[in-house]
# Entry
Amino acid sequence: MSGNGFDAISQDIANLDINDGARDPFAMWDTAPPPAPKLKSKGVIAMDITEQFGNAARQLDVGQLVKDPYFTLFESVGALEIMDRKMDSGCLEPGETMEDQYDFNQELLPEEIIGIIDQLLCHEMAWHMGHPLAQTIFTSLYIDKLLSPSPISIQQTHFDSRHSFDEPLTLRILRAYCLGLIKTCFYVNSRVKTEHFYEEEDFVTHTFNRSLLEGIEHNDIFQFLDETTKLLAESETLPLDIKRALDCRLQFRAQFLNTVELADSRTSDSLVKQWTTLGDFLPYLNSSSKLGKSVPTSFSVKIQRKLASTVPPRPIVQVSQEAAFDHLERLCRDAAVAVEVLTYYDSHSLMTFVLLFQARKPQPSVYVRTLLQHYLFADMVILGTKSIRHILDDDLAATVLPNDQLLDRDNDEIEVPNDPRHQMSVRMETFRARAAGSYLDILRTICQNRCRIRRGLCHTIADWDNLQLDSEELDVELRVFTGEKPIVDPEISTDPIYSFPLSSWAYFYKLKQMEWIVQMGFELETYQPDELAGMYWYLQYLAKTRSRHLERIRGFDMRSFAAARKNPKATADKMRAYLNAISFINFSTMEASATYGFAGALSCLFTVLGRLSLIKAPPRPYSDDTMRYEVRMKPFSCIGLPELIPFDELTKVVVQPEESTIDLLKFAAESAMGAKKGLEVLSKLSAKGAYCQGSHDSWLNNIKACLKACIFTSITIASVKKAVEAAGKDGKPKIKVEIPPSEKGYHDWWVVPKVIPVP
Amino acid sequence: MAGEAEGSKAAELPAELRYMQYEHALEKQYLPAIRALISKDLSEPYSIYVYRYFLYQWGDLCFMALHPEKPLLIGIIICKLETHQSHSPPTLRGYIAMLATSSSYRNRGIATTLVRKAIDAMIERGADEVVLETEENNIPAMKLYERLGFIRSKKLHRYYLNGSSAYRLVLHLKRTVEMTGEGVV
Ligand SMILES: CC(C)(COP(=O)(O)OP(=O)(O)OC[C@H]1O[C@@H](n2cnc3c(N)ncnc32)[C@H](O)[C@@H]1OP(=O)(O)O)[C@@H](O)C(=O)NCCC(=O)NCCS
# Structure
């Protein structure tokens, strides 16, 4: 059910006797009701309606629900029970006080400062991981003191007013660190809030009505950290190792603060350096942590009562130091990589970069992912330098419209309405206005968490289906102005064949997204074992469809290339545009054929495993195959092209009843072998040839992981074949099959079953 | 069906369990035990309003498994059934909100029986589909539902307060073309 975890609580209240259960609902009621509140508003006369209310309430049954038709489950979940300790934040244990009694004037040992700082870093990372400030950083009494009331100058941030004249160095260090920490959080929070993310699911930006030091200038805090570092250096009383540990913490914080402030800039070349410098602090920060002494009393769950929130206080989140450092280290590394997106090579490389960056494992943290979004989309200027049109035209040129008059910017200058160039320009602008959003949506969707990527794509493909239809109309209109001559080839068709460049482009991306949806389904372990044969069949079908579609695009690209070559005025630049598009088409075709070969092999293998009852379907008394197929294929049910294959047809092609098991395995082996060769060729491509400039390493790792999965598939197929051939009279091969969980395989998108001999 | 036939452990119970459909008049007697049984597996308790939200409106979709001799609640399922609007076309959607079997009585088919009773009641009322969410690591729950015919339609990232993700499980009870979004009253 929504919004509630199922981790067990310790209290043993099961097997409660139901006859003892019903308590007197009015047991909590004191004999004397509290005095009526004194109302001061003019014209308002307070009246005691206790009796009327009581009478009215007595007309109702206990447990009778009085609600309007709009009262939702969500609202009922939000309701609190007064005087229930788990829900009512004002409900105190006997002798418990509402607030903590903490002495901010007490001197702390330098070791304790280290302890508090390190605990705060754990809390900061817990926040980055998705926990609310209220259960992490805001549980620190020192932070609470600093932020309420909201200060507007450094002078107002003393933990104790007595410190204004005489602040111990230790507390000064803690204060400087806390100021830097909160300001860092401010930048992170603003970044996340500005981009597309899911509140609570990804990250909690809620600050519970507290300002994250918006009132104090960045430079003031930075300088304060710097001055504190100098004071520390002058101190002669501290042991050297302690001094060094404190110094490292102050410098680390200054560096973190500086980095997140600079991180928003899309021009700075020093960004990578900033993140690596920050990362360099971590080993010593981590190892010197053992010098610290924790001060648990300086953190309190009760502070949440003071925060603007509708939920009762929840436990302080405990993230281990190891996990915190691990997270921070990855954050630095990932952020440094994200910066590299700013170097633009070509539109396809850009998309590859984003796809592979998001597929890093574990997925980059929310803050880093929102930074990437910022680099990509801020102010609708792509990567800070390119118009959306620039990217879109690049992409069209590198697929369907190399060196095409439709993309000629000079057309925009023509104002004569009956000039075809003017008409082309107008229609292309219509197309861009329609397509830009859909194109950017792909990039934006793949910036989300893994689950949301799949969910998002399920929505965007419907839009791409419409885009393809709309573009088709434009393609037809444009023919009038481009004077496109169709291919007339009676061997292919009796009708003339036109290129339909814009809708071809849309179809290409729609197919890619449909493949991703199926593949993400493997990654997220959405399919049951007996669904795998069908889903891999569907994947190979989509990839094959893409490959055929690319064939068509290539035909038209080649035709315009040939025509252009006949033109003596054609420049080398123009020739390169054709070659580039053809090279991309070739690359994508190769990739598609590796995918359909591999998917086809797995589909056959799973079909065989089903036949041999090595993978069993559960009984499913409430469902039938068709109804489940409708659930599974729902995202595709609205897609016009390729039309959803009816269930009976799909079953026939997946189950292949007329093929013998051995023949199926032979075919699977050949198909896997073909895919392996394809992947090997791909793995030798240059960054340019594989359209992964800027992310060649990740791309290569990905291809190699696919290759390993493919080789392992061949081995599995061979083992199954051997077992089938060796099977005795009963035809039962002496093997069993295990399906490794997604994380444990060679590649998340390729579920390769493992065969184990049994006696 | 096969799912139930395989286990014979249920025989260890002294006698047949009693399964009972809930109704509002039973609140005083059973609600505290229902809350106790459900809360055992929750990190955060639901307020009484959540229970009443379901039980008052869809008591007939709530079933209890009771000990044959002692006044003891052993299993519980709580559901709702409503027209789901954001769909085109709308569907009459059943939702399994809560399900639990007391820990010492697990693996005897009790939850399976409860789920079946709830689905049967939904079918009787004309439901088009049944959905629910379950934590990604809750293998017993997932197996139970998948055995009955549910499949995972999507994964929900960090769905629960404790940070773990969930799967949405879906069971269609009709062909899509036959879904009307309206039930039998
Ligand atoms: C999930 C939960 C409700 C299952 O309850 P249960 O009563 O043990 O469930 P069942 O007995 O029907 O099924 C469990 C297993 O017992 C087996 N079983 C044993 N005897 C059986 C019998 N006579 N009939 C049917 N199944 C039987 C089932 O086949 C099933 O096996 P499997 O794990 O291999 O699939 C229970 O573990 C629970 O309360 N968990 C905590 C709350 C929770 O997670 N709720 C679900 C939230 S959506």
